[in-house]
Amino acid sequence: MRPHVEQLAAVARKPVRTILGLMSGTSLDGLDMALCRVEGAGMHTKIRVTHFVTAPYDAAFKKEVRRVFAQPTIDFQHLVLLHVLVAERHAALVCEALAGWGIAPEAVDLIASHGQTVFHAPRQFHGLPGYPNATLQIGDGDHIARRTGIITVSDFRQKHVAAGGEGAPLALYGDYFLFSQPGEDRFLLNMGGIANFTFLPGDGDPTRVFATDTGPGNTLLDAAARHFFNQPFDANARLAQAGRVDAGLLARLKSHPYFALPYPASTGPEQFDLAWVLEQAASEAINSDTFSHDLLATLTRFSADTIAEGIGRVPPTAAKRAIFLSGGGAHNPLMIQHLRSNLPGWNIAAMDALGLSGDAKEAVLFAVLANETVAGHTEPDARLGGLPLVGMGKISFPG
After folding, report:
1. Is 166 exposed, middle or buried (0-12, 13-18, 19+ CB in 10 A)?
2. Which residues contact 252 (CB under 8 A, 6 or more apart)?
3. Phi, psi values for residue 168, rounded to 5°
4. Running along the chain, 399 residues long, what does each successive block of 10 average in pLDDT?
């Protein structure tokens, strides 16, 4: 048996594993890195985050990724080169973080790398007869493993597609293992570039558990802030709060056919981009002096309304209902104000109320997925969210 295979087997047998979860979202803010101590597996999983940091991307790196991100036409050579470049950048950031924490790479059992999504194409989006759901993340795991010296689990979404899913959202698995609570319906809402939630029914029925994208979270807000104000995002909703909601535009945006799809469903910036928004806007509004601020106000309301309406579609199973927030949108006061207005009487709290930083949540959940890949035990017919409960991720060895 090769030494690295023996090492992996030893990691699988350990009572507690040290796993570094990596997440780079569609907002391209930076690389989230959560170093976790993970005990057990499945419903017996216990996790403690010992270190967390978000390493911001520089403008040049973001520009390179945006050349292929959600673009219908790309330079194929550039995509191939980025597959390596993203991995090399992530590996360098991992090494910097570990050095800053005073932790040797040998002390880390696994890296769990999400990679960088560059195109998401479920059937409901591409509409091509005879073609399956598909999604693509770049940032090759072999390069990360080689540069860090740490066994790397990556490319998680492909197994979900192979098992019949859309490859997103994947938070379902970790959320179910870590945060289910009898007697309370829980919605774990992540407001990243695309907003998604995991529904954890209070009656404990695993057949009711699911995760779905509701539609845009911050992706349109960020695009509008970059285009009209040369800002990466609308900090504290200051731009949106200087405008007024355009009721006509809001209604046209909400008429998008995605919002009539049955749950679960997934989407991305490929389907919701600024060009589409501007096509829906009236010419007289575009030519007004207040258009840019009004657009930010309208898009903030659009995200909040479609999130609330999506959550409202889910029939209750318990008397208590709660929403726990994570992602960049959780820091947008106007978005939260609209959510509370749309869902009066609901318990809406930050993810931190469950003992986990909302900013670290997605990176932590990929650590949980990697833990399941090497140490999980499921029955052959086990299902969750309507799909087989499969181990996800490809394993890359340093040697």
Report:
1. buried
2. 280
3. -165, 155
4. 88 97 94 97 93 97 96 96 98 98 98 97 95 97 98 96 91 88 96 96 90 96 97 97 97 98 95 96 91 98 98 95 96 98 96 95 96 86 77 94
Tokens, residue 3: 């030494």
Question: Do 362 and 27 form a contact (C-beta atoms < 8 A)?
Answer: no
Query: Exposed, middle or buried by CB within 10 Å (0-12, 13-18, 19+), for 207?
Result: exposed
pTM for this prediction: 0.91
Closest CA to 197 of 31, 56, 339, 301: 339
User: What region, left, alpha or beta, does residue 225 occupy, with left being phi > 0 and alpha being psi -120 to 50 degrees?
Assistant: alpha
Structure tokens at 284: 């007289």
Which two structure tokens, joined as six digits, stand for 358?
């909302």
Residue 269's contacts (CB-CB under 8 Å, 6 or more residues apart) are 26, 69, 70, 193, 194, 219, 223
Q: Is 168 helix (H, G, I), strand (E, B) or coil?
A: coil
